[in-house]
Structures are given as C-alpha cells and as structure tokens.
Amino acid sequence: MNKEKMATHNLAVILKNQLNDDEFLLLKQTPPPKFGEDEYDSYVDSDLWDLPSTLINLQDNESQSGVFIKGAESLYGKIDSTKFDVELGLARALEQVGHKGSDVGEWSLFKYVEEAEFGPGNPVNTVFLIGKLLGGNQSSQGVCKWMSTESCLNLLLELKPCNGRLGPLVVVGLINDSLPSAARKLPPTLQLQEYPPGVILVPMRSRTVKPFHTTNLVIFAPENVSDTSGDCGFVAHGDALIVDPGCRREYHEELKEIVTCLPKKLIVFVTHHHPDHVEGLSIIQKCNPNATLLAHEHTMRRIGKGDWSLGYTSASGDEDIWVGGKRLTVIFAPGHTDGHLALLDVSTNSLIVGDHCVGHGSAALDVTSGGNMTDYFRTTYKFMELSPHALIPMHGRVNLWPKNMLCGYLKNRRSREATILNTIENGAETLFDIVSKVYSGVDQKFWISAASNVRLHVDHLAQQKKLPKNEKAVKSIIYVVNIV
Ligand SMILES: [Zn+2]
Fold first, then answer.
1. Once rounded to an integer, what is the mean pLDDT over residues 460-478?
2. What is the whole-number distance in angstroms between the Cα of residue 140 and the centre of ligand 1?
3. DSSP letters along 42-90, please?
4. Deepest of 70, 256, 325, 353, by most Cβ within 10 A of its Cβ?
5. Transmembrane ranges (predicted)?
C-alpha cells in the first residue's frame, strides 16, 4: 500500500448529556509546553475547548473490537472500519474526560470529515462518533464543560479574551451545520475547511516551497449581505473577499469556478507579491472585471500588468474593509517583505498572517524584496498584542496557539542570532565564514538561502549595536553581506 496516499485518522467523540439532550461535553485542550523563560511564558493563549479526540491507528489485521457502531457501514469505501481499533480509541478519548466505555450506551457514526490538503504530510481525517452518557454526569472537574450548540454560538459571538475559544472539531463537527455558510454555494467537489465559522480555507496547488504544496485561498462571503455601511471610512466595500489567489496555472479553472460562485462585488486582498500568492490574479480579472485589488503599494509595484490591470486600492495598515456586514482590519506586517500585510477578521478575532508564519516550521524572509529582521521582530510583537484567537497562515494548517507559536519564532531567531554573534566574536570575518560555521551540519545546497538569512541577522545585530567593536572585522562582514 502506498503510505503517501494514506491519511492519518482522528476519532472525535460527541458525548451527549443524559439529562439534557442539547448538551455535549467539551474538553479543555492542553496547550503546547512552556518555554521555561519568563520573556515568553508571560504570553498566554486563552483556554481552548474542543471535543475529546485521539489519533487512531489502522491495524494490519482485523480488529477484534466488540464495540458496535450504528451507521458505520456508510464509511465503506472511505475507511476500512474493521481495521481500526474503535475500542482502544474510544477508551483513550473517554479517559480524557474521566469516563470509560461502560459509561456510554450505543455509539453511532455522526459524520466523517476528510481534511483538505494543508500539509505537510498526510491529511488528518476525522471520524465523529456520538453516544449518550448513562447515569451520572460526573466528568473530570475543571477540564470538562457541558455546552449546547446555542451556548457555543453565544461564545463565538461574544468575543472576550477571558471567554475561552472553541476548537476546530466542535466547529466543523457540530457548529457550522447550524450557521448559514457560503461554503454551501461553492463547488461541492472543492476540498475546504471552515474554521473559524465564516472563514473558508481552500488549499490550492501552488508554486510554493517544500514541505508545502499549496497556498490557502481564504474566502469570506457572508450569507446575509446587508451593505448598510455607507462610506464610513472603509477603504473598500464588497459582498465577498478572497485572500491570496496563488494557485498554479493548471488550477485556474478551479479558481474560476470558485469566483463564479461568489458575489460580483468582490475584493481581492493580497498579502504580498510572491508568485505563490498572486498567480491566480489573471484569471480573476478575466472572469470578474468588477473585482478590485487591495494591496500595499510596494506589493503592487512588483505585480506584473499581465497579472492585474484592473482597479487597485492601496493599503498601508489600519484601514478597515467592509464585506457584507463583516469588518476586517488591514495590519501592516513588514518583515517577510517590505510591503507585507496581514488581515484581522474582527468578528472571529482570527489573524491572516500571510507568510509571516507557516503552519509548520519557520518562515523565510525575502532579502531581495525588503525583507528585514528588525521589522520581522516588530511585526511579531504587534501580532501578539492583538491576542488573536487563531493564526491563519497561507501554507499549512490554522494555528490554535498563536502566542505560543509567535514566541517560538522569537526564541528560535534569537538563538540563531546569538550563534551568529558568537561566531563573529570568535573571528569569523566573512559571510562565508559565518555560514560555514553556523550551518556546518546543514546540506551545502541550503547555504545560499542560509547566507541571506545570516545577512538579515547581521543587519539586525548591527542595528541593535551588538556587533563587536573590532571595526575592521565588522566592516568586512557588512561589506560582504551587502554584496551577496
Ligand atoms: Zn512569500
């Protein structure tokens, strides 16, 4: 069997309350480990509540599981349910909330959700099982809470930092079904994810760099278009907005189908000019000449006329956009490039971060387009001050622990910078000296991109006046740095 094509499977449990049929049990999710340094540990993400869940392994032999799942036959052809150990999976998920298999009556298949191609690695497909707790609702104190769809909707509508957040399993599994969604108007074959509610992500094949293969097209198209905003200071108005149409030419037809399903008053927002973020622009202007482009002027300067020759609105940060009753705020976010912008969806407090972060691993800075480490650090702190509920990168999955992820970036870059400084202090005189020492364990074919990263760090060290006083050495490094 080709392992590459296999998916990882996740089992999510909807545990109904015997005394109140509207309620189900949510588990407080464990945050990623702390850093052990006050500088970073002082930034804390709010509580995240989601369905109990566990990854499950498919077995080579038929499972001897004695658990009967009503409706499991509908999984036939998608997943070989005889080979997955339901009993073990259920035991592990129930243990998280202080229960065991015998506490629950009959189990039924609620739904099966195949994950879109976010990468890296296999998609994670989720089997949602539903069952009712028999007798007593004594679940683990402090980490469990009974909620109904209605109380979840209230939590989503009343965004307060102390209120806690809802995770993607409960939203995709239960909540989205009771909300109007533009996703239902999109082509049914499209692989997408709607999380947070109203924020639709479609990973589309693009000319991006490994380990990713796709760029997330973000779509906002609120159902109840009631454009009563007038001209109250919004930089752009529309009935729908898409972010970063970066799919390769071979997927233009798919993008065209998406755009055709959206309202004509369309805003196209691009975070920056890299081809894997703008390659789809040309097909959009062909199939919807009413669309307007919103970008930073540095980004616009680098987008070819062949890609976009229609209307364009310049944004530089702090502007508001009005999309069918929804407010989004443009955030100036230089670092990756000098014209890089992020976008905050105010109603869900989720932040579309462009290439400032990627779903997995660290993001590279583009030294040829004004990428700058000082800006990168500043933007990272700016993002943390916004206390977003989720980070939406253009490559990879949504990140649910924004402050933790951003602090991880700061910590890694500072430690790389400390190593570079140490190398300089120990006599490295040229960029090559530094790269060959700092990246000695890394394949030489990565040294060119490493060199531009080192250059950005040396510039940043110089700006912080941290380079050693030995003028001759420093001059020579800065000279070499500037000609690379
Ligand atoms: Zn980029």
1. 73
2. 44
3. T--PPPEEE--EEEEPBPSSPP-----EETGGGGTTT--GGGB-HHHHH
4. 353
5. none
- Provide the percentage of residues in the chain whose pLDDT is more than 90: 65
Instruction: Tell how far the Cα of 283 is from the centroid of ligand 1, in angstroms.
Output: 20
The pLDDT value given to residue 67: 82
Residue 126 Cα to ligand 1 midpoint, Å, equals 31
CA of 274 to the centre of ligand 1 (A): 5
Burial track 26-37 (b if 16+ CB lie within 10 A, e otherwise): bbbbeeeeeeee
Do 103 and 204 belong together in one domain? no
- 296: left (phi > 0), else alpha (psi -120 to 50), else beta? beta
pLDDT at 134: 87
- Ligand 1 centre from 357 Cα, in Å? 10
Q: How far is the CA of 271 from the centre of ligand 1 (A)?
A: 9
Cα 77 to ligand 1 centre (Å): 39
291 CA distance to ligand 1 middle (Å): 23
* 246 vs 202: CA distance, rounded Å: 11
Structural domain boundaries enclosing 469: 412-483
Query: Do residues 164 and 142 touch, judged by C-beta distance below 8 A?
Result: no
Residue keyed to tokens 């999984």: 75
For residue 236, what is the domain's CATH number?
3.60.15.10
344 and 380, same domain (yes or no): yes
State in Å: Cα 108 to ligand 1 middle. Answer: 44
Average pLDDT over the chain, rounded to an integer:
89
* Separation of CA 275 and ligand 1 centre (Å): 8
> Do 354 and 246 sit in the same domain of this protein?
yes
Q: Verify that 268 and 355 share a domain, yes or no.
A: yes
- What pLDDT sits at residue 478? 56
| Number of domains the chain is built from | 3
Q: What spacing in Å lies between the alpha carbon of 355 and ligand 1's midpoint?
A: 5
Ligand 1 geometric centre to CA of 226 (Å): 34
What CATH number should be reported for the domain holding residue 118? 3.90.79.10
Please check whether residue 115 is in contact with residue 124, taking contact to mean a CB–CB distance below 8 angstroms. yes
> For 60-68, what is the mean pLDDT?
69
Tell me, in angstroms, the distance from the centre of ligand 1 to residue 414's CA.
Answer: 21
Q: pLDDT digits over 388-421, tens only?
A: 999 999 999 999 999 999 999 999 999 999 999 9
Q: What is the distance between the alpha carbons of residues 4 and 108, in angstroms, rounded to a whole number?
A: 30
Residues 467, 384 share a domain: no
- Distance between Cα 208 and ligand 1 center (Å): 8
C-alpha 91 – ligand 1 centre gap (Å):
43
Alpha carbon distance 179, 198 (integer Å): 9
